[in-house]
Amino acid sequence: MDSRFEEHLEQVGFNTLTPIQLAVADDLVTGQSIDALAPTGTGKTLAFTWPILPKIVPGDGEQLLVLAPSQELAMQTTRVMREWASILGLKVLAVTGGANVKRQIDSLKKHPEVLVGTPGRVHELVANGKLKLQRLRTLIVDEADVLLREETADQITDIWQSIADSEIQVALFGATELDAGKAETIFERVFKRIDQRDVTIPVTITHTFMPTANDQKNKRLRQLASRKNFQAIVFFNTTKALKTTASFLAHEHVAMATLVRGDSSSTRATALANFRNGKAKFLLTTDVAARGLDIQDLPAVLNFDVARDGETYTHRAGRTGRMGHQGVVVTFGNDHDLRDLKRQIQVDIQVITLSELLGQVGPAEQSQNASKERHSKAINQKQATDVKQSVKSEKTLSRQKTSVHSKPTLKGHVSPKKDDDEISPRQARLAKQKKAKRRHQKDKGKPRRKE
């Protein structure tokens, strides 16, 4: 390692290199083309940054190109590399989709030594003649198992054919194995395999499963959001489900951010910034959008939907417990989902409840209890109101009866019929006379019926 890097490592308190960082160093320094595999969260970005940057000549144009599958991963890699490139006086430029292409073209005129980009934007710039790669010495393909598939594989093939230089070093990095034959066909070379996936590393990730009905998943997120100092990336299988949950959480006033493919680069950057600085409890995303993301000291990953396969689950889980830190992966689902999960991954899975996850009665449960108390109080208040209204109605009815008895009967008005035991003989006689009089008036003028 360059002595200037060693000094900086001492300043930042970095003492031990990871297995993948040690394993690839010599081959990258000597120009060997490699296919490097290591678990997520083991420092692969620094594994290629430290050996290659000291080989670059300041002021000699574009010599290193790093390709990443997403804007977020490209920007993350850019930030890491800039820290170390500045020590050597090198410039690092991000060329990603979604960003202002005119500004990128203007920045390319300054001929930065290091470029970090997404295949789509790099392909566009190369095809339009805005990016020349004749000075390129090293090509890094990060998350190669994703990039060397379908559309992005075609874009990388076109980029490579514009260079077609067998002396350029190519290094593939990833956590899962790719089709070696396809890589050899595209780049016309045999890669040296460096596999560090079986090397023991200090990983402290707890894998858990929380039985949850589909219509209760959003409620479960709201409960977890009440826990102090709790943050998590929440993974969905579809963007539609993600947006539905985002609407629910927004209605419940839960601070969250969304990372969706297709959003503008500024929107996605803001979402990540809010999550990193703690303004958002949850980062809702899909597998493609969050590939390779590094959130420092992220406490948890939540699988709103069970991962489609073991490889996807591995990459999701790799967002927490990075570089030996503690982390927990929580998967929501039913018994069928639990069986699928056990088939996907060969690790111990703890079936837990919400209370067990929180460890003790925390703000989430307190919030629930407070809600129950408010509900109970509301019921008591309603019952008290009903009693008052009932008493009031009885008093009103009593006053009405008193009023009927005390007021004189108007002409033509028939008093309400009373029970026999309440009518005096005089009242009964008068009522009988009035009834006879009405009948007489009614029959007046009509012919009498013959007997």
From TrEMBL:
Classification via InterPro entries: DEAD/DEAH_box_helicase_dom, DEAD/DEAH_RhlB, DEAD_box_RNA_helicase, Helicase_ATP-bd, Helicase_C-like, P-loop_NTPase
Ranges annotated as biased composition (Polar residues): 378-388
The keyword Nucleotide-binding is annotated on this UniProt entry: yes
GO cellular component: cytosol
Region (Disordered): 361-451
A GO molecular function held by the record: hydrolase activity
Matches recorded under SUPFAM superfamilies: P-loop containing nucleoside triphosphate hydrolases
Domain (Helicase C-terminal): residue spans on this chain: 216-365
Domain Helicase ATP-binding: 25-195
PROSITE patterns tied to this protein: HELICASE_ATP_BIND_1, HELICASE_CTER
Compositional bias per record (Basic residues), positions renumbered to this chain: 429-451
UniProt keyword terms in alphabetical order: ATP-binding, Helicase, Hydrolase, Nucleotide-binding
Record-stated family: Belongs to the DEAD box helicase family.
UniProt-recorded name of the protein: DEAD/DEAH box helicase
